Amino acid sequence: MASDRDILPEWAKPSHYHVSLYDLEFGGGFTYQGTVAINVNITNNAGWSDLSLNAYQLKLHAAELKLKDGSTHESKDFKYDDKRQRVTLDFGTNIEYNGEAVLTVKFQGTINNVMAGFYRSKYKPKGEVPASTAKDDEFHYMFSTQFESCDARRAFPCFDEPNLKATFDVELEIPEDQTALSNMPEKEVKQSKKSGFKTVVFNRTPIMSTYLLAWAIGDFEYVEAFTKRKYNGKNLPVRVYTTRGLKDQGRFALDNCHQIVDYFSEVFQIDYPLPKVDLLAVHEFSHGAMENWGLITYRTTAVLFDPKTSADSYRNRVAYVVAHELAHQWFGNLVTMDWWSELWLNEGFATWVGWFAIDHLYPEWNVWGQFVSESVQLAFQFDGLRFSHPIEVPVYDGLEVDQIFDHISYLKGSSVIRMLSAHLGEEVFLQGVADYLKANQYKNATTNDLWSALSKASGQDVNSFMDFWIRKIGFPVVTIAEEPGQIGLRQQRFLLSGDVKPEEDETVWWIPLGLHTGASASAASLHKVNALTQKEDTIRDVDDSFYQINKNLTGFYRTNYPPERLVKLGEARHGLTVQDKIGLVGDAYANSVAGYGATPGLLALVERFQDESEYLVWSQVLTNIGNVRSVFSHADDISNGLKAYQLKLLTPAVEKIGWDFKDGEGFLTGQLRAALILSAGLLGHEATVAEAKRRFDLYTSGKDKDAIHPSLRKAIFSIAVKDGGEQAFKAIQNEYLNTTSIDGKEICLQALGRVQTPELALDFLSFIFSSQVAMQDKHSGTIALANNSKVRIEVWKFVRDHWEDKIFPTLSGNMVVLERFLRFGLNKFADDKVADEIAAFFKDKDVRGFDKGIAVIDDTIRSHAKYRDRDEAKVREWLKANGYA
């Protein structure tokens, strides 16, 4: 057994499961009975008397092992190990046997409410609901599964490891007027012994990992389309399932889905391998979506979209999440990582290729600008911490893996893949990926298998230049020194805290330079030196009229230009791409925080962007200046000066863009309008505040329900809550409780976080932890409060004061949810005293399952505290000198 991971004994391997669930309780206890028959291949010459498999929160009734010679052995005892989520079956006698056997286990489980395993989601139905639908006094319920990473064991006893692939037969006993779904199409429906019930039997799955098995039961309806391409002579059915009354909001996802299935079948050179694609909207969901093979499950806001009532930003979200999960049908499902340490293989690739597909469908969205602004910058933020982790990270067991479903696996992973694709060329890169998939289909594979396929396709030794990017922690900053006609380059590890120790700075990354130089930005061309492969180097023949490195931010590193060059690049901004400008601003900000640069340089650079017209560049500017304002919010004079600075920056743009959405206007223009109005209103831009309040009053009074465009709800609600005190707070709370828009609840929670008093912040936190707010949404409101410097301390006080009675009991059933709540709720402070308090509070607590989140919080706060102390006087002086304070 590998010592670096806690796995089941290797002498028993499953090949097939027959899972049967029956006697489901549709109200009250939500228990169910089950039988699983597992074909097991045994290779143990030593003889054995017990057998271990995964089971968690299940009660076993009986277990029988039938050998090929016809003999049977019954388990005499069940030993449960909750910490390792296992059960050991004791057969009471030494069994000397090698070969095939069938293990049959009868068991009982619970359809829980923690969004893991086989669980229930509450909702308020639209229209008539069959009497058999599960319900309590307040809500109706649908049932579905979430098995990744290691929660199939919560639903049935199994060998729950990704490389123990098997085939699955599933049958579910359900009320006659309900619908059951699984990975494969329905094979037959049998009459149940129970009156009013039927048993739905599904076709056998291909060989796959337990975490990809799925089923769902509920009062479902669907919209359907078919692929344009034929698969085995047929156009594949594609469906979006919802609970009754919502199916038409699945049409946008549906339209994307069938096109993307066809597109990926061509890109990967392997036809989609299952006979159907089902997408299911789930009312409570811990992540965004889950790629179960053939039955992909989604949080409602990631798959449903109503052109009349949804904010347009959700159109982008739905399209991308649909593409991401479909990418997994090949990359993850058909070919699966060997162990959770290589989770990035699944998630990093699906993230990159998801955006790749959306760029194909919606070229006008500037997808790669969005990727650089969101994915790359967020990856930088988390990987700039001392407590980051390598993309490929050792994982001991299931509780550890849940914590690496994070920005490093997804966003750094996809950023590094984008860097490699740019270096090899897209066509060569995708050919290598297709070769990798063909060679490893229906099997498990490693990072090295991918590198081998890409090396063969490209004729380059991919492993030699990618190894450190995957297996070493962090990323570099490249600092530039100028001399006439040449530049000196030095790489070192970037840390947000700016205090890299020599032993933390030993990695020498292969860095693709993307150096462009020439008489001007528009005349610049690619320099012949294309990579930095040592700690320091000098590059000659550089035209100092204009040069830039890391063109389009394809390399995953920060650039630290001399201050004078930063000014010149700001002057040349109209000749730069959107990605270049995002990189320029993002790097200037990050270098200020880390101390490689200083905040006045960032402020002077950004001041020039008053005339910017691109949403994605504004998004970067607003995020970074917002962070600067957050860090220095403790000092009133600086806070007021930065507010005046940002207001001056924004005013021409917000006055130019106006309030009205015009026919035929681009998606990005609408996003820019929403972002500028939100920022200007929160800063107190008088005309914006007045118009927002006017529209809010018309809307909430019922005089004009069309006074607020769906894409401006977040902006107007937020401005109203900030400006309108308790009255506006209560109005938005009421909106939250009564909205019928699929994105309405998320938007209301984000707006409610703009409260300005400790009392209202406490009211909001109490509301978040009431039954009115679904478990999946509890972090949404908390993030908004954490981003609000006026009241963020109330989040920490609430966690501290209510850990035992509210926070831990409510969220600890699903560690992913608890970790996310803490990490995003407590990481915005810039005060060592708060960091000390948080560290002291958690010091004696069992933090397994969210320990990495606690380390990230501590590191982030202390880095921002260092930044605040270092730059406070400089920022104050610059604001005074430039007339802002």
TrEMBL record:
Molecular function, one GO term: metalloaminopeptidase activity
One Pfam family linked to the record: ERAP1_C
Note on cofactor: Binds 1 zinc ion per subunit.
Documented EC number(s): 3.4.11.-
Keywords for this protein: Aminopeptidase, Hydrolase, Metal-binding, Metalloprotease, Protease, Zinc
Site (Transition state stabilizer): 410
Cofactor: Zn(2+)
ERAP1-like C-terminal domain span: 546-862
GO terms, biological process: peptide catabolic process; proteolysis
Protein name (database record): Aminopeptidase
